[in-house]
Fold:
Amino acid sequence: MSPSVALQEMIRAIRSARTQCEERGVIQRECAAIRAQFRQADNGGRSHNLAKLLYVHMLGYPAHFGQMECVRMIASPHYSEKRVGYLGAMMLLDEKQDASLLITNSIKNDLSHSNQYVQSLALCTLACMGSAEMCRDLAPEIDRLLRGTNSYIKKKAALCAVHIVRKVQDLGELFAPAARSLLSEKNHGVLYGAVVLITELCAWNPETLELFRKTVPDLVQIMKGLVISGYSPEHDVAGVSDPFLQVRILRLLRILGRNNEAASDAMNDLLAQVATNTDSTKTVGNAVLYETVLTVLDIKSESGLRILAVNILGRFLLNNDRNIRYIAMTCLQKIVGTDHNAVQRHRGTIVDCLKDQDASVKRRALELSLALVSASNIRSMMKELLLFLSSCPPDLRAEAGSGIFNAAERYAPSQRWHIDTILHVLTTAGGDMRDETVPNLIQLITNASELHCYTVHKLYRALLTDISQQPLVQVACWCIGEYGDLLLRGECQETEPVQVTEDDVLDALETVLQSHMSSPATRAFALTATMKLSTRITDNVDRIRSIVSIYGSCIDVELQQRAVEYNALFKKYDHMRAAVLERMPVIERNSPGHTNGVSVGEAVKEIQPAEVKQGLLQQNANQVCDLLDLLGGSEEPVQPSLAQSSTAPGMSVNTASTAGGDLLDLLGGLEPTPHAPAPTLTAYEKHGVTLTLSCEKQSDSGLTVTLTASNSTDSDISSFTLQAAVPKSVQLHMKAPSGDSLPARGTAKVTQMVVVNNPNKVKLKMRLRISYTRQGSAFQDTVQIDSFPEVSTAGH
Structure:
């Protein structure tokens, strides 16, 4: 029986095993036989034994004892053994194992072999499991093969170079000249490997990116040849010529054209040609079109081309394939902020996707629909979103409700519409809303004083209909407690008049208190509302007193405490009850933004200066100095200089801090003197990132260094971090930074304070490591500061 048949028999025996125990027994016997044959010096069936061991490894059983056999077979002069040996090395070895270092010399010899298939085996193995040490040793050999004449070897060498660049970024400069020369090749496999290699080189090194921007015309010509070429059976896939190469070239063009107008202009015509000539009825054509759209939206393309790209995504939304619809909405979500009007044209199609059966498509359609809401379409979009909320899955209700709340707050045409929308959401899916819903709605109702009667009537009817939605019940209880007198009058022009008696209102609140569906927080709202009604009604005060007294022995501590305090109001402090339970004042909004078209800042009243006595001014000024530390305005002690006792109100008083002066100005129109700016030093300026340094001396040995970073490029920077190192005799403490992202064009900065203590007064040096991510690429740089600007002691 030949060894190959033995392999087949082993596979047959393993597959015919009825239990896992029987399968383990077969594999253990085979592994023992393989181990015994490995020990024999003259073993003619080594390749077949290793093949059987690789099958055992694929099943998940240990096969590490075959690693040395792989090393021996790689060194064999026979191709059949080399092939199995290299395959075993790729499966059984990795860069963390010492045995991988033993094959470095064999790979180097095989890279110079006369047989191209032996060279191919060595290239594939190095690209699969080559460690950083192996890559450094064999990189010159790969560069030599890239410059050769054999297309079969060059395409594999290019992909091997990609692995080397990923392992050792410093070796990218070695492959750049050869990679550029490969673009003149006619072989599609070599072109594909070259494009992948250039993409990897540009992603790691900005200087290489600038170098390869000169190759944009060559890439455009290659792409045009693929688009307008006739039928080629060797490269045609569903009517598209080599779509794999087209996709790779489009990705490379996207990297080269990003934030570069010259490169973008050179590829605009090509992208328009690809977008109009590619067949969109097949998945292959859609893949090319999708990469084209991503490239158009990422470079500095013309406005007409961007509209064409959005229209392609609109056609994707009509595709029957849910995956294509999903990626289309994902892409539209990214550009809705910059191309809002173009995306708005496809609003109807996007809203229709809310009815899709697929959960992921439905979620993406919801996010995009919420992003499309504007002041002009708020009514129509909200109608669709409320319809979706009534039938959406439970896991989407919280997200849909929050999105509707935010949209209604930003674009509500009127306060009544705003309140009706929020109440509709609470009635439909109140149990899934977030905790901040109740206080936000209460604040909205409080500010709409002309709608108090309308709101309390509507909430009362909602309370009688359903008490399962806890946020709705809580808001209804609060409104009944505050505006119960308006409810009892029955005079509301906004709704049909309904006659409500005091007993009806108390019955409703008692139902909430006694319901098993009511949470402790809801019962607390109902109990407080009942107590507040004691000052708004006249005939049922005794009933309210009995309701409150019942909960004085409630098992819930919060409810018990409220009841005991309310009983005390009835008994000991009845004369204060009316004042304590009077209507709540209007709640001021302290969050930035707009509500119903009115800026929050317009509601802020001007503070009038008051007369301040000299002693009180001295005390307040000292308190202001203490507040400066809490506000982060200054790290130094501030010593306000006060005038003589005859100072009149409004007379200027000098302070040592601008922030302190602003606060003192509230006390009587005081004018601060400007603080001398700390000396600054530009410590780092590279690739659009600028880092400035300012120093402030706190004592003879203490120094506070403020690092300020800004970004002057056209792309945002994320994951921005600073690390600092000083000599061993110096103590260093880095405080938390103000953020980790730098918006484009210097719209915002990141600051970080470093406290340095130099007790031995050695010459101060500091080394800074700057790390950040831009456009998906990570950057890291180091700068050393040998001299600091001269500073004076703080406060002098």
Q: What stands out?
A: Residues 20-39 form the longest helix (20 residues).
